[in-house]
Design a protein that fits this description.
Blueprint (H helix, E strand, L loop, with lengths): L1 E6 L4 E8 L3 E9 L1 H4 L7 H23 L8 E7 L3 H18 L3 E5 H10 L10 E6 L4 E8 L2 E7 L5 H11 L6 H9 L23 H14 L4 H29 L4 E5 L6 H14 L2 E4 L10 H12 L20
Parallel strand pairs: 1-4, 4-5, 6-9, 9-10
Antiparallel strand pairs: 1-2, 2-3, 6-7, 7-8
Helix pairs in contact: 2-3, 4-10, 5-6, 5-7, 5-8, 6-8
The chain binds 5'-O-[(R)-(carboxyoxy)(hydroxy)phosphoryl]adenosine and zinc ion.
The site of 5'-O-[(R)-(carboxyoxy)(hydroxy)phosphoryl]adenosine has 20 residues, from helix 5 and helix 6.
Protein backbone atom coordinates (compact mmCIF):
# COMPACT_ATOMS: atom_id res chain seq x y z
CA UNK A 1 0.00 0.00 0.00
CA UNK A 2 1.58 3.30 -1.17
CA UNK A 3 0.67 6.27 1.01
CA UNK A 4 1.42 9.88 0.11
CA UNK A 5 2.09 11.88 3.30
CA UNK A 6 1.70 15.67 3.43
CA UNK A 7 2.89 17.83 6.35
CA UNK A 8 2.57 21.63 6.54
CA UNK A 9 1.73 22.25 10.21
CA UNK A 10 4.51 24.73 10.89
CA UNK A 11 7.47 25.92 8.81
CA UNK A 12 8.45 22.84 6.82
CA UNK A 13 6.70 21.96 3.56
CA UNK A 14 6.98 18.18 3.39
CA UNK A 15 5.75 15.28 1.27
CA UNK A 16 6.73 11.60 1.33
CA UNK A 17 5.73 8.26 -0.07
CA UNK A 18 5.76 5.32 2.35
CA UNK A 19 4.98 1.71 1.38
CA UNK A 20 3.17 -0.53 3.88
CA UNK A 21 3.85 1.85 6.76
CA UNK A 22 7.61 1.18 6.99
CA UNK A 23 9.37 1.38 3.62
CA UNK A 24 10.32 4.98 2.86
CA UNK A 25 10.19 5.44 -0.93
CA UNK A 26 10.82 9.17 -0.77
CA UNK A 27 10.90 12.05 1.69
CA UNK A 28 11.10 15.70 0.68
CA UNK A 29 11.33 18.47 3.27
CA UNK A 30 11.51 22.08 2.07
CA UNK A 31 12.76 24.10 5.03
CA UNK A 32 11.71 27.72 5.53
CA UNK A 33 14.63 28.53 7.87
CA UNK A 34 15.98 31.06 5.35
CA UNK A 35 12.65 32.94 5.53
CA UNK A 36 12.19 33.06 9.30
CA UNK A 37 15.82 33.09 10.45
CA UNK A 38 16.17 36.88 10.36
CA UNK A 39 13.08 37.25 12.60
CA UNK A 40 14.43 34.80 15.21
CA UNK A 41 11.18 32.80 15.06
CA UNK A 42 8.36 31.74 12.76
CA UNK A 43 6.17 34.41 11.17
CA UNK A 44 2.86 32.54 10.58
CA UNK A 45 1.66 34.59 7.61
CA UNK A 46 4.96 34.17 5.79
CA UNK A 47 4.95 30.44 6.58
CA UNK A 48 1.55 29.82 4.97
CA UNK A 49 2.40 31.90 1.89
CA UNK A 50 5.62 29.89 1.41
CA UNK A 51 3.66 26.61 1.78
CA UNK A 52 1.31 27.75 -1.02
CA UNK A 53 4.28 28.53 -3.25
CA UNK A 54 6.12 25.22 -2.70
CA UNK A 55 3.64 22.47 -1.83
CA UNK A 56 2.85 21.23 -5.37
CA UNK A 57 6.51 21.12 -6.33
CA UNK A 58 7.36 19.24 -3.12
CA UNK A 59 4.63 16.63 -3.79
CA UNK A 60 5.74 16.21 -7.42
CA UNK A 61 9.32 15.69 -6.25
CA UNK A 62 8.23 13.10 -3.66
CA UNK A 63 6.34 11.14 -6.34
CA UNK A 64 9.22 11.44 -8.79
CA UNK A 65 11.78 10.17 -6.24
CA UNK A 66 9.45 7.29 -5.35
CA UNK A 67 9.20 6.56 -9.09
CA UNK A 68 5.42 6.52 -8.82
CA UNK A 69 2.53 8.44 -10.34
CA UNK A 70 -0.63 9.50 -8.51
CA UNK A 71 -2.40 6.49 -10.10
CA UNK A 72 -0.19 4.24 -7.95
CA UNK A 73 -1.03 6.05 -4.69
CA UNK A 74 -3.56 4.18 -2.55
CA UNK A 75 -4.19 6.85 0.07
CA UNK A 76 -3.20 10.30 1.28
CA UNK A 77 -2.35 11.08 4.91
CA UNK A 78 -2.22 14.74 5.85
CA UNK A 79 -1.61 16.64 9.09
CA UNK A 80 -4.93 18.05 10.34
CA UNK A 81 -3.56 19.70 13.54
CA UNK A 82 -2.32 20.95 15.89
CA UNK A 83 -0.21 23.71 14.32
CA UNK A 84 -0.41 27.10 12.65
CA UNK A 85 -3.88 27.27 11.18
CA UNK A 86 -2.90 29.01 7.94
CA UNK A 87 -0.10 26.50 7.36
CA UNK A 88 -2.27 23.49 8.16
CA UNK A 89 -4.96 24.66 5.73
CA UNK A 90 -2.54 24.62 2.80
CA UNK A 91 -1.63 20.93 3.21
CA UNK A 92 -5.17 19.88 4.02
CA UNK A 93 -6.67 21.73 1.03
CA UNK A 94 -4.16 20.16 -1.35
CA UNK A 95 -4.78 16.68 0.11
CA UNK A 96 -8.52 17.14 -0.31
CA UNK A 97 -8.16 18.44 -3.86
CA UNK A 98 -5.94 15.55 -4.97
CA UNK A 99 -8.08 13.01 -3.12
CA UNK A 100 -11.33 14.31 -4.59
CA UNK A 101 -10.11 14.77 -8.14
CA UNK A 102 -8.23 11.44 -8.33
CA UNK A 103 -10.67 9.45 -6.16
CA UNK A 104 -7.93 8.61 -3.63
CA UNK A 105 -9.05 8.23 0.01
CA UNK A 106 -7.45 10.71 2.40
CA UNK A 107 -7.10 10.76 6.17
CA UNK A 108 -6.24 13.52 8.65
CA UNK A 109 -3.43 12.72 11.09
CA UNK A 110 -2.67 14.26 14.48
CA UNK A 111 0.78 15.85 14.23
CA UNK A 112 1.93 14.45 17.60
CA UNK A 113 0.82 10.95 16.67
CA UNK A 114 3.01 11.43 13.61
CA UNK A 115 6.03 12.28 15.79
CA UNK A 116 5.42 9.17 17.93
CA UNK A 117 5.10 7.02 14.80
CA UNK A 118 8.52 8.29 13.67
CA UNK A 119 10.04 6.45 16.63
CA UNK A 120 8.26 3.30 15.44
CA UNK A 121 10.46 3.56 12.34
CA UNK A 122 13.66 3.42 14.43
CA UNK A 123 16.49 1.15 13.32
CA UNK A 124 15.69 -1.48 15.97
CA UNK A 125 12.14 -1.91 14.63
CA UNK A 126 8.86 -0.88 16.22
CA UNK A 127 8.65 -1.00 20.04
CA UNK A 128 6.34 -3.45 21.79
CA UNK A 129 3.28 -2.13 23.64
CA UNK A 130 2.80 -0.71 26.18
CA UNK A 131 5.45 2.01 26.09
CA UNK A 132 5.99 5.46 27.56
CA UNK A 133 6.67 8.11 24.90
CA UNK A 134 8.28 11.53 25.20
CA UNK A 135 7.55 14.08 22.48
CA UNK A 136 9.90 17.08 22.63
CA UNK A 137 9.39 19.56 19.80
CA UNK A 138 9.27 23.31 19.29
CA UNK A 139 5.54 23.40 19.95
CA UNK A 140 5.00 20.52 22.39
CA UNK A 141 6.65 18.71 25.25
CA UNK A 142 4.45 15.85 26.39
CA UNK A 143 4.62 12.40 27.95
CA UNK A 144 2.26 9.65 26.78
CA UNK A 145 1.44 6.14 27.85
CA UNK A 146 0.65 4.02 24.80
CA UNK A 147 -1.11 0.74 25.74
CA UNK A 148 -1.56 -0.21 22.06
CA UNK A 149 -1.01 1.18 18.57
CA UNK A 150 -2.89 4.41 17.93
CA UNK A 151 -3.90 4.81 21.59
CA UNK A 152 -2.11 7.50 23.60
CA UNK A 153 -2.93 8.58 27.13
CA UNK A 154 -1.52 11.96 28.02
CA UNK A 155 0.47 11.75 31.27
CA UNK A 156 1.77 15.31 31.36
CA UNK A 157 2.77 18.26 29.20
CA UNK A 158 4.52 21.57 29.46
CA UNK A 159 2.71 24.31 31.33
CA UNK A 160 4.52 27.05 29.42
CA UNK A 161 7.35 26.79 26.90
CA UNK A 162 8.07 23.60 24.99
CA UNK A 163 11.62 22.26 25.29
CA UNK A 164 12.47 23.16 21.68
CA UNK A 165 10.93 26.60 22.18
CA UNK A 166 13.26 27.12 25.16
CA UNK A 167 16.22 26.25 22.90
CA UNK A 168 14.97 28.75 20.30
CA UNK A 169 14.47 31.53 22.84
CA UNK A 170 17.81 30.99 24.58
CA UNK A 171 19.55 30.96 21.18
CA UNK A 172 17.90 34.30 20.39
CA UNK A 173 19.06 35.73 23.75
CA UNK A 174 22.61 34.67 22.87
CA UNK A 175 22.47 36.14 19.37
CA UNK A 176 22.48 32.70 17.73
CA UNK A 177 20.29 31.96 14.71
CA UNK A 178 16.95 30.21 14.26
CA UNK A 179 16.25 27.34 14.78
CA UNK A 180 18.00 27.56 18.11
CA UNK A 181 18.33 23.84 18.88
CA UNK A 182 21.10 23.03 16.39
CA UNK A 183 22.82 26.38 17.11
CA UNK A 184 22.90 25.72 20.87
CA UNK A 185 24.04 22.13 20.33
CA UNK A 186 26.90 23.27 18.08
CA UNK A 187 28.36 25.76 20.56
CA UNK A 188 27.67 23.46 23.55
CA UNK A 189 30.02 20.80 22.17
CA UNK A 190 33.02 22.67 23.63
CA UNK A 191 31.24 23.76 26.81
CA UNK A 192 31.27 22.58 30.40
CA UNK A 193 27.79 21.62 31.51
CA UNK A 194 28.48 22.34 35.21
CA UNK A 195 29.87 25.82 34.48
CA UNK A 196 26.65 27.70 35.24
CA UNK A 197 24.04 26.42 37.65
CA UNK A 198 20.62 26.82 36.02
CA UNK A 199 17.36 25.73 37.71
CA UNK A 200 15.59 22.43 36.97
CA UNK A 201 11.81 22.67 37.42
CA UNK A 202 11.14 19.10 38.55
CA UNK A 203 7.48 19.79 39.56
CA UNK A 204 6.96 16.90 42.00
CA UNK A 205 3.87 14.66 41.84
CA UNK A 206 3.09 15.51 38.21
CA UNK A 207 4.39 14.62 34.78
CA UNK A 208 3.99 18.21 33.65
CA UNK A 209 7.01 20.25 32.56
CA UNK A 210 7.94 23.92 32.86
CA UNK A 211 10.81 25.55 30.97
CA UNK A 212 9.96 29.24 31.26
CA UNK A 213 11.84 29.61 34.59
CA UNK A 214 14.97 28.19 32.99
CA UNK A 215 14.61 30.57 30.05
CA UNK A 216 14.19 33.49 32.48
CA UNK A 217 17.28 32.37 34.42
CA UNK A 218 19.28 32.52 31.17
CA UNK A 219 17.79 35.95 30.37
CA UNK A 220 18.80 37.23 33.82
CA UNK A 221 22.29 35.80 33.39
CA UNK A 222 22.62 37.60 30.04
CA UNK A 223 21.32 40.85 31.56
CA UNK A 224 23.92 40.61 34.32
CA UNK A 225 26.92 39.39 32.31
CA UNK A 226 26.12 40.55 28.77
CA UNK A 227 25.66 38.43 25.62
CA UNK A 228 28.22 35.62 25.95
CA UNK A 229 30.80 34.70 23.34
CA UNK A 230 33.64 32.23 22.96
CA UNK A 231 34.13 29.74 25.81
CA UNK A 232 31.52 31.50 27.97
CA UNK A 233 28.90 31.01 25.26
CA UNK A 234 29.82 27.34 25.00
CA UNK A 235 29.60 26.94 28.79
CA UNK A 236 26.23 28.68 28.94
CA UNK A 237 24.83 26.57 26.07
CA UNK A 238 26.11 23.33 27.63
CA UNK A 239 24.76 24.27 31.08
CA UNK A 240 21.38 25.25 29.63
CA UNK A 241 20.87 22.13 27.54
CA UNK A 242 21.95 19.88 30.41
CA UNK A 243 19.24 21.48 32.59
CA UNK A 244 16.62 20.73 29.89
CA UNK A 245 17.80 17.13 29.47
CA UNK A 246 17.94 16.47 33.24
CA UNK A 247 14.23 17.31 33.50
CA UNK A 248 13.15 15.42 30.35
CA UNK A 249 15.09 12.32 31.40
CA UNK A 250 13.93 12.36 35.02
CA UNK A 251 10.25 12.61 34.05
CA UNK A 252 10.51 10.05 31.26
CA UNK A 253 12.04 7.36 33.45
CA UNK A 254 9.78 8.16 36.38
CA UNK A 255 6.77 7.66 34.10
CA UNK A 256 8.18 4.37 32.77
CA UNK A 257 8.72 3.16 36.31
CA UNK A 258 5.20 4.10 37.44
CA UNK A 259 3.66 2.51 34.35
CA UNK A 260 5.87 -0.55 34.89
CA UNK A 261 7.16 -0.68 31.34
CA UNK A 262 10.85 -1.04 30.38
CA UNK A 263 10.14 0.34 26.90
CA UNK A 264 10.58 4.05 26.25
CA UNK A 265 10.12 6.02 23.05
CA UNK A 266 11.61 9.46 22.35
CA UNK A 267 10.83 11.70 19.38
CA UNK A 268 10.53 15.32 18.19
CA UNK A 269 13.03 17.93 17.08
CA UNK A 270 14.92 18.02 20.40
CA UNK A 271 15.69 14.30 19.96
CA UNK A 272 18.08 15.30 17.15
CA UNK A 273 20.47 16.52 19.83
CA UNK A 274 23.46 14.14 20.07
CA UNK A 275 24.14 14.96 23.73
CA UNK A 276 20.50 14.12 24.54
CA UNK A 277 20.67 10.86 22.54
CA UNK A 278 23.89 9.88 24.31
CA UNK A 279 22.45 10.63 27.74
CA UNK A 280 19.29 8.66 26.94
CA UNK A 281 21.37 5.66 25.87
CA UNK A 282 23.45 5.89 29.07
CA UNK A 283 20.32 5.99 31.23
CA UNK A 284 18.82 3.05 29.34
CA UNK A 285 21.95 0.96 29.90
CA UNK A 286 22.07 1.84 33.60
CA UNK A 287 18.49 0.72 34.04
CA UNK A 288 18.52 -2.24 31.68
CA UNK A 289 15.56 -0.80 29.79
CA UNK A 290 14.94 -0.44 26.06
CA UNK A 291 14.94 2.75 23.99
CA UNK A 292 13.23 3.49 20.68
CA UNK A 293 14.35 6.81 19.36
CA UNK A 294 13.20 8.38 16.11
CA UNK A 295 15.80 8.22 13.31
CA UNK A 296 17.65 11.56 13.04
CA UNK A 297 15.99 12.58 9.77
CA UNK A 298 12.54 11.87 11.21
CA UNK A 299 12.90 13.81 14.50
CA UNK A 300 12.06 17.22 13.06
CA UNK A 301 8.89 17.74 11.02
CA UNK A 302 8.58 15.49 7.98
CA UNK A 303 5.87 13.75 5.98
CA UNK A 304 7.14 10.17 6.44
CA UNK A 305 5.81 10.15 10.00
CA UNK A 306 2.41 11.40 8.80
CA UNK A 307 2.21 8.76 6.05
CA UNK A 308 3.24 6.03 8.54
CA UNK A 309 0.67 7.15 11.10
CA UNK A 310 -2.12 7.29 8.49
CA UNK A 311 -1.31 3.89 6.97
CA UNK A 312 -2.98 1.61 9.51
CA UNK A 313 -6.27 3.53 9.38
CA UNK A 314 -6.27 3.81 5.59
CA UNK A 315 -5.47 0.11 5.27
CA UNK A 316 -8.53 -0.65 7.41
CA UNK A 317 -10.58 1.23 4.80
CA UNK A 318 -11.07 4.32 6.94
CA UNK A 319 -11.02 7.77 5.37
CA UNK A 320 -12.07 11.32 6.17
CA UNK A 321 -14.76 13.36 4.45
CA UNK A 322 -14.14 16.60 2.58
CA UNK A 323 -15.73 18.39 5.56
CA UNK A 324 -12.62 17.64 7.70
CA UNK A 325 -11.23 20.90 9.03
CA UNK A 326 -7.80 21.89 10.29
CA UNK A 327 -7.45 22.71 13.98
CA UNK A 328 -4.77 24.84 15.60
CA UNK A 329 -5.16 23.01 18.91
CA UNK A 330 -6.54 19.54 19.43
CA UNK A 331 -6.12 16.78 22.00
CA UNK A 332 -4.46 13.65 20.69
CA UNK A 333 -6.99 10.96 19.70
CA UNK A 334 -7.26 8.32 22.40
CA UNK A 335 -7.87 5.58 19.86
O1 LIG B 1 9.55 18.59 15.78
P1 LIG B 1 9.92 19.91 15.23
O2 LIG B 1 10.52 19.96 13.85
O3 LIG B 1 8.74 20.91 15.16
C1 LIG B 1 7.61 20.99 15.95
O4 LIG B 1 6.70 20.17 15.78
O5 LIG B 1 7.62 21.95 16.77
O6 LIG B 1 10.92 20.56 16.29
C2 LIG B 1 11.54 21.77 16.08
C3 LIG B 1 12.22 22.13 17.37
C4 LIG B 1 12.82 23.53 17.38
O7 LIG B 1 12.43 24.19 18.55
C5 LIG B 1 14.30 23.26 17.34
O8 LIG B 1 15.08 24.27 17.98
C6 LIG B 1 14.41 21.93 18.07
O9 LIG B 1 13.28 21.21 17.65
N1 LIG B 1 15.63 21.24 17.69
C7 LIG B 1 16.63 20.93 18.55
C8 LIG B 1 17.67 20.37 17.77
N2 LIG B 1 17.25 20.34 16.45
C9 LIG B 1 16.00 20.87 16.44
N3 LIG B 1 16.74 21.09 19.88
C10 LIG B 1 17.88 20.70 20.46
N4 LIG B 1 18.93 20.18 19.77
C11 LIG B 1 18.86 19.99 18.44
N5 LIG B 1 19.90 19.49 17.75
ZN1 LIG C 1 6.45 18.69 14.91
Amino acid sequence: MNILGIETSCDETAAAVVRDGRQILSSVVASQDDLHGRFGGIVPELASRRHVATILEVIELALQRAELTLDQIDGIAVTKGPGLIGSLLVGLSVAKAIGFSRKIPFIGVHHIEGHLEAALLSANGPPPYPFVGLVATGGHTSLYFAPQRGMYHLLGQTRDDAAGEAFDKVAKLCGLGYPGGPAIENVAVNGISEAISFPRAMLPRTYDFSFSGLKTAVALWVREHGVPSGQTLSDLAASFQEAVFDVLIAKLFEAAETKETPDVVVCGGVARNERFRTRLKEEIQKRDQKLWIAPLALCTDNAVMIAAAGTSRLSRGESDALSLNAQATMPIALG
